[in-house]
UniProtKB/TrEMBL annotation:
It comes from Hibiscus syriacus. Belongs to the glycosyl hydrolase 3 family. This is Beta-xylosidase/alpha-L-arabinofuranosidase 2. GO terms for molecular function: alpha-L-arabinofuranosidase activity; xylan 1,4-beta-xylosidase activity. InterPro entries: BXL, Fn3-like, GH, Glyco_hydro_3_C, Glyco_hydro_3_C_sf, Glyco_hydro_3_N, Glyco_hydro_3_N_sf, Ig-like_fold. Keywords: Glycoprotein, Glycosidase, Hydrolase, Secreted, Signal.
Length: 771
């Protein structure tokens, strides 16, 4: 993107921010009952169905008015009593002021800042994700009622964390498509509410699709052409978006900056019109990433004129432009015959329907559902307690020799707290964050349990020199235990900043090793990061007693870390991504999108599903202070897959010993498991149970794939039974090289930790399956 374009965007956003800040948004957005000239208009009548109201409004607008409503800073239509609206707000892990639609101040100085998504995903707790969504939308609605926020939130980010160097991997739920899709569905449900067609806020799953590179080795997201096979698109990259639309009923999908197989995603009708709206049945709008239309014209040179770019985007299925491009060029595109006004009408109808579902055309906000929410509902004690609980559940215990954790109140009364993240506050909330209600740093959290000796050891996470090492080493010699808080922050990994490697930055590793050598008591390494870190040196160092990963744990992260260190909380998090050794990325281009390994070209494959090489810690790894034992007490050995009648006379075959999913009667076809989980240790604990499937051998299948997970609290010495339902067509299917999803016939092995259970899938009837 050129300097001139960036300057225009910056000016545009500043003007929007001034517009939003200066306007009085507390009154009705539209259909003010006090305005006799507009209140009686059909589109304001609540008794009419929303589609009829939308059609009435669209029919009253001029072409000039329509095109000015196709952008994120949608213009007002004073003659119809409609105010201007800023569509861009963010709520990745709490209400954020990254977008110009939301601002903090006055009665709303901040909002609850939950852990970054990668940390929350490590809880593998879908009910927690939905609960966080409910709190975030409560606070968003409260701020909207107070005139400081919008109702359309471009969150969550459900891209696959494909490469461990990706700077935005922290925003995602990890590397597994089922985990990412389940997170998407539950968080979106929490945000949007459960009041039928009415929306509490409108969520948005982004960035569609195959978007997971920001700026690596001279290639940036504005120029990147992701070359992706049909198999990987269907099997990996599109799965979270499909689940977000179909299971979460999300109100919006955002297309990304990059090209996919030579076509900008925001100009590709196969992706937008055919897949998102056609096959998946999106009930909502499709929005561009900010200035994406301008990018594919100015930077990618995809069209010869700006009018062609506007026409291509709208005809592909884009409804809203984050930026100004469509407002500038759509009218001329119509005049030049490149675009029909009916195309603009259809795009506008999709955005207006969402606004009407939000109640924005229902008159006075205070008289509507959620109209009672206000400042008292933001940063409330219960909301902040949930942020603390989310951080506790997301912390992963990677290593515990001895065991050395939890620390003892009696034996570890003086603790050395060392490291560049030891007194972290803002860095704990990661990116796309807002203004937190307040912070508890690790130093403060540990200080509630023990007397602390604090030394940072490194001036910052870059740790460019060893000037401060001496004081840190001396502190470790004087303390009963040493806690090192190391890792990364947004200066290392962030939007538009991919990592160069996987080691700790600068001299951090040397600080850890020297402190551990000098420490009088146990040395505990606590890592803050979004992406994985190669800490093989620490894993193999017997002087490092334990290792924790806290991700970016949110505003209460320090308290959660301390609770885990001292055993108030028994850790139950599991890694949502593979932790690779540095050698994995040494000769691996981030631009290579292939998921599956290829021995022919010495390509290792990506994620636990397709990579079989050495790891530092595997996907799903995480220890507890107690022990859990599983027993499968109920499960079928054979499941029949009924066909839907797509048969014809002839030789009886099932192509490739796999049935096309769309030829099976899938609705309630599932495998039910009953699993007893026994806590054989001496501490109460909450167990994260992961269920994997190993499909029958074949060229299409991954090594194994996550098919279900559950969270269960089990007191010490007791046992709980957990029911698991695995949808056969969704989770026991695989994708062939043509991108067709099929159910392999034969024995699938279900794995829960060390136990296995075989389930044989058989075709209910045999016939020649149409292919």
């Amino acid at each position: 993107m050129g300097i001139a374009t960036l300057t225009l965007i910056t000016l545009f956003l500043l003007l929007l921010l001034l517009f939003v800040a200066s306007g009085d948004a507390i009154g009705p957005f539209a259909c003010d009952p006090k305005d006799s000239t507009t209140a009686a208009l059909p589109f304001c009548k609540l008794s009419m169905p929303i589609p009829e109201r939308v059609n009435d409004l669209v029919g009253r607008l001029t072409l000039q008015e329509k095109v000015r409503m196709l952008i994120s800073g949608a213009a007002a239509v004073p003659r119809l009593g409609i105010k201007g609206y800023e569509w861009w707000s963010e709520a990745l892990h709490g209400v954020s002021d990254v977008g110009p639609g939301t601002r903090f101040g006055g009665a709303f100085p901040g909002a609850t800042s939950f852990p970054q998504v990668i940390t929350t995903a490590a809880s593998f707790n879908a009910t927690l994700w939905e609960a966080i969504g409910r709190v975030v939308s409560d606070e968003a609605r409260a701020m909207y009622n107070g005139g400081t926020a919008g109702l359309t939130y471009w969150s969550p980010n459900v891209n696959i964390f494909r490469d461990p160097r990706w700077g935005r991997g922290q925003e995602t739920p990890g590397e597994d498509p089922v985990l990412a899709g389940t997170y998407a569905a539950f968080y979106v449900r929490g945000l949007q509410g459960g009041d039928g067609d009415r929306l509490k806020v409108a969520a948005c799953c982004k960035h569609f699709t195959a978007y997971d590179l920001d700026n690596w080795n001279g290639v940036d997201r504005f120029h990147f052409n992701a070359k992706v096979s049909k198999q990987d698109i269907e099997d990996t990259f599109d799965v979270p978006f499909k689940m977000c639309v179909q299971d979460g009923n999300v109100a919006s999908v955002m297309c990304s900056y990059n090209k996919v197989n030579g076509i900008p995603t925001c100009a590709d009708p196969k992706l937008l019109r055919n897949t998102v709206r056609g096959q998946w049945k999106l009930d909502g709008y499709i929005v561009s990433d900010c200035d994406s239309v301008g990018v594919f014209y100015n930077t990618q040179n995809y069209t010869a004129t700006p009018e062609q770019a506007a026409a291509e985007a709208v005809k592909a299925g884009l409804d809203l432009d984050c930026g100004w491009f469509l407002a500038q060029h759509s009218e001329d595109a119509v005049k030049q015959g490149l675009l029909k006004e009916v195309d603009i009408n259809n795009a506008l109808a999709n955005t207006l329907r969402v606004q009407m579902r939000l109640g924005m055309f229902d008159g006075e906000p205070s008289a509507q559902p959620y109209g009672n929410l206000g400042p008292k509902d933001v940063c409330s004690p219960s909301n902040q307690e949930l942020a603390l609980e989310a951080a506790r559940q997301g912390i992963v215990l990677l290593e515990n020799r001895g065991p050395s954790l939890p620390l003892s109140h009696l034996h570890h009364r003086t603790v050395a707290v060392i490291g560049p993240n030891s007194d972290a506050t803002v860095s704990m909330i990661g990116n796309y964050a807002g203004v937190a209600c307040g912070y508890t740093s690790p130093l403060q959290g540990i200080g509630k349990y023990a007397k602390t000796i604090h030394q940072i050891g490194c001036a910052d996470v870059h740790c460019r020199d060893e000037v401060l090492f001496g004081a840190a080493i001396d502190a470790a010699r004087r303390a009963d235990a040493t806690i090192l808080l190391m890792g990364l922050d947004q200066s290392i990994e962030a939007e538009f900043k991919d990592r160069k490697g996987l080691h700790l930055p600068g001299h951090q590793q040397r600080l850890v090793s020297e402190v551990a050598m000098a420490s009088r008591g146990p040395t505990i390494l606590v890592l803050m990061s979004g992406g994985p870190i190669d800490v093989s040196f620490a894993k193999n160092d017997p002087r490092i007693a334990a290792i924790l990963w806290a991700g970016y744990p949110g505003q209460a992260g320090g308290a959660a870390i301390a609770d885990v260190l001292y055993g108030t909380t028994n850790p139950g998090g599991k890694l949502p991504m593979t932790w690779y050794p540095q050698e994995y990325v040494s000769n691996l281009a981030m631009t290579d999108m292939a998921m599956r390994s290829s021995p022919r070209r010495n390509y290792p494959g990506r994620s636990y599903r397709f990579y079989k090489g050495p790891v530092v810690y595997p996907f799903g790894h995480g220890l507890s202070y107690t022990n859990f034992v599983h027993t499968i007490v109920g499960a079928p050995n054979v499941v029949s897959v009924p066909l839907d009648g797509h048969r014809r006379n002839g030789n009886a075959t099932v192509l490739g010993k796999a049935i096309k999913v769309n030829h099976a009667r899938c609705n309630k076809l599932s495998v039910g498991l009953q699993v007893n989980v026994k806590n054989t240790g001496s501490k109460d604990g909450t167990h994260t149970m992961l269920v994997f499937s190993v499909p029958p051998a074949g060229h299409w299948a991954p090594h194994k794939q996550l098919v279900a997970f559950a969270k269960v609290h089990v007191p010490a010495g007791s046992e709980q039974q957990v029911g698991i339902s695995i949808h056969v067509c969704k989770f026991l299917s695989v994708v062939d090289v043509s991108g067709i999803r099929r159910i392999p016939i034969g024995v699938h092995h279900l794995h829960i930790d060390s136990i296995k259970h075989p389930v044989s899938l058989q075709a209910e009837t045999l016939g020649v399956i149409k292919t």
